[in-house]
Amino acid sequence: EKAGYKHFMLKEIFEQPRALIDTFRHRVDPHGGEIILEEFHLNPDEVKRLKKITMVACGTSFHAALVGKFMLESLCRLPVEVDLGSEFRYRDPFVDSQTLLISISQSGETADTLAGLREAKTKGARSLAICNAVGSSIARESESVFYTHAGPEIGVASTKAFTTQLVSLYLIGLYLAKQLGYRQPDQIQQNLQALFKLPTLLQDVLDENRAIREIGQKYMKANNFLYLGRGIHYPIALEGALKLKEISYIHAEGYPAGEMKHGPIALIDEHLPVVVLATRSPVFEKMMSNIEEVIARRGRVIAVSESDNDTVREKVETTIPVPETSLELSPILLVLPLQLLAYHIADLRGTDVDQPRNLAKSVTVE
Ligand code: M6R
């Protein structure tokens, strides 16, 4: 059932173009630009009364929530707060009936996320779950459920669940933005057109698989990795680092690039691979200065950037090319090379990719 792939993780990485389509296909009208979310149980007046959105999740789903914060704040102009299940549940959070609590969970059984949802419900919050597992505890206990339809995810390292969570957040963001009057139908139409193009672009990244394995070969002996991103790409740096440490057991840290000077820069030497997310964005120039700072300390930069981005390519040791898309959708594209890089490094080091030591697919105890 691995369909010819060596591991479930690799199969699931390659399933992402299809999984994305399954997430959005039945929720968008391809002509009129409408988003149909029958599963969302707040009426337009209730949406207008919302004062804030709070998202609760763990692990990779928490990284999706961090990307979601950027998406939802820019699309809906509502304050968005993100917390880990294990922190949220014990901190007596400010949540009330004008809060929309979005819990994100692939399995729908993560104990801390479930406890966070229950805590928010006791305080009167409205609840929406983004879940992959149908009929799971989090899905059953939430007022509204948005299923990601990624299909079963077997590999312990989450991949297609993550990218479909991001598509879900994008659709929810556009839907709320329209109800709140922040997006006109023609803008929604444009946003949806960008989404429809995404699966093909993901395929272009997957076509780089061989080249990424070679890059894996080049860096597989490193003992540490640093991942840097800014803005909406910062959570992708966290996710890239999490993937690598989970399955290859190499120590890796994800950092917002602007924080480098405040500590992690001390780690940089000629042995440290530094993965930078350096596509064109409003903070591209800032990212370029970070790259220069890393190179000045002889760090080995692996940049994920557009294939025609010569500014980056001419500076760094290694480039992984990605196609162009909108800023809001770019995290979905940028995470793919990081999943593949982690996969190949782990496979080359001979670890048990699908069942890494000490980890469970779903963490149902605290
Ligand atoms: O099922 P969930 O999405 O609630 O799981 C949350 C985390 O346990 C999960 O994402 C974990 O971090 C993965 N192993 C990441 O690859």
From TrEMBL:
EC number: 2.6.1.16
Catalyzed reactions: D-fructose 6-phosphate + L-glutamine = D-glucosamine 6-phosphate + L-glutamate
Keywords: Aminotransferase, Cytoplasm, Glutamine amidotransferase, Repeat, Transferase
Location in or out of the cell: Cytoplasm
GO biological process per UniProt: amino sugar biosynthetic process; carbohydrate metabolic process; fructose 6-phosphate metabolic process; protein N-linked glycosylation; UDP-N-acetylglucosamine metabolic process
SIS domain mapped to chain residues: 43-182, 215-356
GO cellular component assignments: cytosol
Residues in coiled coil: none
Residues annotated as catalytic: K361 (for fru-6p isomerization activity)
Keyword Repeat among record annotations: yes
GO MF term set: carbohydrate derivative binding; glutamine-fructose-6-phosphate transaminase (isomerizing) activity
Main location: cytoplasm
Functional note: Catalyzes the first step in hexosamine metabolism, converting fructose-6P into glucosamine-6P using glutamine as a nitrogen source.
Subunit structure of this chain's protein: Homodimer.
Record's protein name: Glutamine--fructose-6-phosphate aminotransferase [isomerizing]
Organism expressing this protein natively: Desulfobacca acetoxidans (strain ATCC 700848 / DSM 11109 / ASRB2)
Parent-record interval covered: 244 to 609 of 609
